[in-house]
Structure formats: structure tokens, C-alpha cells
Amino acid sequence: MKEETGYKIKLVLITAGVTIAAYLIIKFMLPLVTPFIFAGIISLILIRPIDFLCNKTGMNRSLATVLMMITAFAVLSVLVFFVVKTVTNQFRELLAYISQYFEGMSSRCRNFFCRMDRILGLNLGTCEEYVKSRVDIKGEGGVIGSIGLFFTATAFAVMAVFFICKDYHKIRDKLYKSILGSEIRYIVDRSRKVFGVYLRTQSIIMCITALICVVGLWIMGNKYALFLGITIGIMDALPVLGTGTFFVPWIIVLLVNSSYSQALGIGAIYLLCYYVRQFLEPKLMSDRLSISPLLMLMALYVGMILFGISGVITGPVATIFIKEIVQMCKIRMLGKSTNT
């Protein structure tokens, strides 16, 4: 009885300790090592092609790494170029279509403010000036600083990719042969699985969201349905953006311009996309990782509360790691109790 009680107390303490450690790592350590995490992910993608190139040609590993990085960068640049070119052309066409809504919205807003001035007995223009004074349009320095930080982090990530790919096997062997070798191997294997599951989940949801948007906009008679649907689907896969970034301003513009039927249609598409994601994301991730959908839903909510938008990713991933590490500790404790 005492052994069982001691086992439960240890398990509770381990769970609490791992949870606190996960919170501290995400809160304070993750922003510092994010470029190197991306470098590690990119390196894992490039390792096999580099190994293949070295084994087949006998090429020096440093040279093979540089060639593979240049090739990957060139392919990515070409893809980005064609995507940007397509988006730019479509955007130019959309500007003419959308401009009328902004013109109508501007005039309707001015009329609304004038009516409010008359109702409140204020001088004409008072409400409009008040609203303008409440809108913060500053912050250029912060944007410039963020751009500089982004390029600095990118430069370090590129250098990290080179060194990781160049000495990958040496680094791996040293880590696996260290005191925490078995734990590191376990964490690396779980990271690959978690990342793979997350990518598959987001890809499935992105395709479903894009399909809903394309079909919905096509039914509404929008001639840009295919382009807009694919764009919104891609945006939905990005935690910082999401479908609301696109749909909410669109709905507001339609309402201001008294296009109530179109606003209702766009709102219905937005709600459908939103609830499809809320339903599918916990379900798909939990089914493939053997975690309860309710626990995954709680992880999403707690992650968003603690870490903001990034918690959509860090919450579920942290929950998975906490579960797996506790499970590993449980197996080891049971093994020791059995041996004794």
C-alpha cells in the first residue's frame, strides 16, 4: 500500500515538474532558440539528399552541403517568385473590384458620423476626429526593428543549417552516446512524429478549408473563387493569420455598403471554416497520437491563453511531450519496482 502511494506521489510530482519545465521552456527558452529549431528541421530534410550525394559521387561533405543548400534555395526562390507573381497579378485585378467598396464605405462612414454629430448636438466632424485620434498609426520603428531581427535570425539559421548538415552524424553520435543519450533519442523520435502529424493535420484542414471557400464563393458567383479559396486555405494554416484575417474585414466592408446578402454568405463560409477547424484539428491530431480529443481541445485553449496565437502550436505539442515523458518515467519506475 505504501509503495503504491509513493508511486502515485512520484507520478504527480513528475507530471507537475515536467509541466512547469515545459511552460518555462516555451515562455523563455523557445524565443531564443527558434532559429535553431527551424535550422534543425531544414537540416533533417536535407540530410538524406546530402548523404546520397556524398555516397554516390564521393564528394566532400562540406561541398555537398553547400550545393544542396543552394539547390534548395534556388527551388524555393523559383516557387516563391511564381506564387508572388500570380498573387500580384490577381491582386491588381482585385483592387479595381474592391475599390468601389472602400469608396462606398468611406462615404457611408462620413454620413454616419454626421448623423451622430447631429443626434448628440456636436459640431460637424467631432465624432470623425475623435475616432481618428483613437486610431494608433505609429510604430514604424518597431516594424523596422522586427525586420532587422528577422534577417539576423535568418542568417544565423542558415549558418546553423550548414554546420548541422556538415557534421550531422558526428553530432548525432555524440548526443546518443552521452549520459542522456536514450532520453535524447526518445525526444528526437517523438519530435519527428509530432511534427509529421502536425503537418499532415494542417495540410488536410488547409485543403478542406480551401475547398469550402472555393465552392462557397463559386455558389455566390464570385469570379475569383478559385484564387481566393486557395489563398484563404493557405492563410488558415498559418497560426498568426487564419481565415478571420481575410473574412472579418470583408464582412465589415459588405455591411457598411449595405450588401447584406453577400455579407451573410461570406459570414456563413467563415463560420463553417472556423468550426471545421475547431472540430477536425483536435480529432485528427488526437487520433494519430492516441490522445483524447477533449485533452487536445483543452491544450489548444490553454496554449492560446498562456502564449497567444503561438499557443495553437505550442499548446498541443507541449501536451504531447508532457504525456510521453511522463509515460517514459512511469515505465522506468515500474521497471525498477519489478526488479526490486
General description of the model:
The protein is mostly helical and 340 residues long. It has 11 helices and no strands. It has helices at residues 2-57, 61-120, 126-134, 140-166, 168-176, 181-219, 225-236, 244-256, 260-289, 293-307, 311-339. Helix 1 (2-57) crosses helix 2 and helix 9 packs across helix 10. The longest helix is centred in the N-terminal third of the chain and has 60 residues, at 61-120. The protein is globular, with a radius of gyration of 26 Å. The two termini are 16 Å apart. The model is unreliable at 135-143 (pLDDT under 50).
Notable features of this structure?
single chain; mainly alpha; globular; 340 residues
SSE layout and pairing:
Blueprint: H1 2-57, H2 61-120, H3 126-134, H4 140-166, H5 168-176, H6 181-219, H7 225-236, H8 244-256, H9 260-289, H10 293-307, H11 311-339
Helix pairs in contact: 1-2, 1-4, 1-11, 6-7, 6-9, 6-11, 8-9, 9-10, 10-11
Cα distance spanning the termini: 16 Å
**What is the CA-atom radius of gyration, in angstroms?**
26 Å
Mean pLDDT: 76
* Unreliable residue stretches: 135-143
Please report which band the strand proportion falls in: under 5%, 5-15%, 15-25%, 25-35%, 35-45% or over 45%: under 5%
Based on Cα principal axes, name the global outline: globular
Largest sheet: none
Seen as an oligomer or otherwise, the chain set is: single chain
Would you count the extended β strands for me? 0
Broad structural category: mainly alpha
User: Count the helices. How many?
Assistant: 11
H/E element order: HHHHHHHHHHH
Helix content: over 70%
